[in-house]
Amino acid sequence: MLQSKFFAKTLRDAPKEAEAVSHKLLLKAGFIEQCTAGVYSFLPLGFRVSQKLENIIRNKMNSIGGQEVFLPTIQPKNLWQETGRWTTIDPPLFKFQDRHKKELCLGPTHEEVITDLVRSRIKSYRDLPFALYQIQNKFRNEMRAASGLLRTREFIMKDLYSFHAIKECLNKYYNRVLEAYHELFEECGLKTILTEASSGTIGGKESHEFMALSETGEDKILICKKCNWAINQELKSKNENLKSCQLCGGELVEHKAIEVGHCFKLGVEYSKKMQANFVDKNNKQKPIIMGCYGIGLGRLIATIVEIYHDEKGIIWPKSVAPFDLHLIVVGAQNFMPAEKIYKDLSKKFDVLYDDRRESPGVKFADADLIGIPIRIVVSEKTLEQNSVEIKKRGEEKSCLIKSSELFQKILALI
Length: 414
What we know:
The protein is of the alpha+beta class. Helix content is about 30%, strand content about 30%.
């Protein structure tokens, strides 16, 4: 991609209202732009990162038997009345009427819709278990959107739902999802802590959050010094008798963190209310047992930036970076050889080529701000030695590599 033609413009300064580091950098580097409070447009750079995350998530969900669906954003009032959440869910629903005066809402979550879908198709224990997931827009009527992509009113979310005949089957699959989430977040470059959590308005008797430690985080978690068992402060406040680790009795230490994933054992919370039943081996009607597992993509992007940055800008992990390489040409007389290098590299790598008529200082500053993992510079100095300059983002040292050895060097770095 030629940077001169790319719809991505960096800013000198982030808007004053931006407080979180991720909010400042994603705006300044041209990954997102605010449309209104809590609502953001994803520009080409930001959408590329989002697509990378979608691919990682999709591959992991498919590997544990998930089947992808796409459910509607607009949801009817009657489904939410069946569960009693039309007036009780917090934050409250975005509600509206169509031209026929029918009451509808924009879906903040899809328990009602997925349960309605399943109850019309599942009749026997032979149809169970299975899991459905989607990557879909959600709408939360937040009182106060904050910290850029960390708390928004419209966002993209992956939600997986599993359906079982017996609790033991749910427990087994739930643990399988927890393991998959750990692997997924590691692939995104995040170290996460599994935390016992409150189920909130989603429901169910047991839930776990995946937390990434960060001073920007709105959540407070307690972590055992001895065994790393963790619990959300919100859940602890409902159990004032909890003074030490429930597993080993060790001291609990408070940390700030960002929630990047949440898993729920819903049980029969929704299937009972909505009469989503199946016939078991004894020919008896029983409610389907459910699990729910969510990841917010925008929040995940912001969390990665909160952890991977320096004073110059973002430092993307290679798995989610918008491009593999950032090629920069210095000096107008060097465009022809740089063009050839760009064409050669593009055969094997995803390259952003800075062909703009800008000063070297502007180009290097923008490269550091955008944060692509590897920077390659073509200049008069490098061409005199039949070389290019190569540097990893986040490292100070660069080195000259012979053009003939460039592919091997990049492969070693990537």
